[in-house]
Write a structure and sequence with these properties.
single chain; alpha+beta; HIT family, subunit A; 5-stranded antiparallel sheet; 5 strands; 26% helix; nucleotidyltransferase
């Protein structure tokens, strides 16, 4: 009997330690090293995984304030005291600043934040309202210049019940959108692919700020 062209002869087949742990089993095909390395945590399968361990920081509440008080315990109070590059601040206005979201929904996801520690939009002064509005408009212009965004989701989550991650310090989200940006990755795999590091995004937006 001749060997199948897709199947090596007995002399050519790996054996013992030379054979991948998944190979040769009736329930498992030859598997890439990356998949074989996961053996022991479940039944091996042919799917590759895109691991995003940085999201665990968000899930576990890293950097989330433990109280509603102003001061160093609040990230939005602390960031203006750092250099722009370290804080991922894109632009500073007289009453508010624009900063990249550390856990972006899309590339270029900014937040416009008043310097003053205030929770509710109705508590902002006229100057703060004007500056938040101006920075929001400028954010859109900068993002369009850099990436040609087709549209935006803009808004605030007021209060924990409304989904605010840091409810005690008001912040407005500016999320760029593109046609087709909701593809199979977030829809099926609940994974967002971000093609650029945050410091690089900050530098581009800061350079293009109107």
């Amino acid at each position: 009997m001749t060997d199948s062209p897709d199947q090596p002869s007995g002399a050519d087949q790996p054996s013992g330690a030379d054979q991948p742990s998944g190979a040769g089993r009736p329930d498992s095909p030859y598997l890439p090293d990356e998949v074989v390395a996961q053996e022991g945590v479940g039944v091996p399968d042919p799917f590759m995984r895109l691991w995003t361990p940085h999201r665990m920081a968000y899930i576990e509440g890293e950097n989330k304030p433990t109280s509603d008080e102003a001061g160093s315990g609040c990230p939005f109070c602390r960031l203006p005291g750092l250099p722009d590059a370290d804080a991922l601040i894109v632009h500073r206005g007289p009453a508010a600043y624009a900063v990249l979201n550390l856990y972006p929904y899309n590339p270029g996801h900014l937040m416009v934040v008043p310097y003053r520690h205030v929770a509710d939009y109705t508590e902002l002064t006229e100057e703060e309202v004007a500056d938040v509005a101006a920075l929001t408009r400028q954010s859109m212009q900068a993002i369009r210049t850099v990436s040609g965004a087709h549209g935006f989701n803009i808004g605030m989550n007021q209060g924990v019940i409304a989904g605010a991650g840091i409810a005690a310090h008001l912040h407005q989200h500016v999320v760029p959108r593109w046609s087709g940006d909701t593809n199979f990755m977030p829809a099926i795999a609940h994974t967002k692919v971000l093609p650029q590091l945050l410091p690089d995004t900050r530098a581009l937006l800061a350079k293009s700020w109107p």
